[in-house]
Amino acid sequence: MTGSSEVRREETGDRVEVALSSGILFGKDSARLSKIAERRITEAARAIREAGSPAVAVAGHTDNLGSASHGLNLSQQRANALTRVLQRHLPDEVRVTARGYGEARPVADNDHEAGRKQNRRVTLTFHRRGTG
After folding, report:
1. pLDDT tens-place string over residues 6-58
2. How far is 28 from 32, CA to CA, in rounded Å?
3. Rama region for 66: left / alpha / beta (φ>0; ψ in -120 to 50; rest)
4. 2: pLDDT strictly greater than 50
């Protein structure tokens, strides 16, 4: 799940963050999951199970195009959509929360399409058990 522009994984101590490009998960301006999304979410669920994490935070993010309220709503809808699928692949005891941040937490410059593309993402953050 690492090394591509579609999926990025960062580990710091016991904290793991997996960022999935919204381009592989959703169509433009949509919260409907693409056909490839199920496979990517299944891969993420496997990593969460292997980590033994008791909780996962799912965060939706957008670029700054369109209104801030539209971006916030879309990012929440996308986080919710991913969460519904993710929960089917995790044990019941794993707590999953979803939150949309809209354009509030960019990881790249929104002045150019390359940066906006990086900002359109859904991240999953969880912790590995027994480390740190």
Report:
1. 889 999 999 999 999 998 999 888 999 998 999 999 999 999 999 999 999 99
2. 10
3. left
4. no
| CB-facing half-sphere around the CA of 95: CA atoms within 13 A | 4
Rounded CA separation 11/45 (Å): 16
Q: Which two tokens stand for residue 95?
A: 């707590």
Question: In this structure, what are the phi and psi dihedrals at residue 94, rounded to the nearest 5 degrees?
Answer: -80, 120
Residue with tokens 């999951």: 33
pLDDT in tens, 83-106: 999 999 999 999 999 999 999 999
Rounded to whole angstroms, how far apart are CA atoms 128 and 34? 29
**CA gap 25, 78 in Å, rounded:** 9
The domain ranges of the chain are: 7-127
Domain 7-127 class in CATH: alpha beta
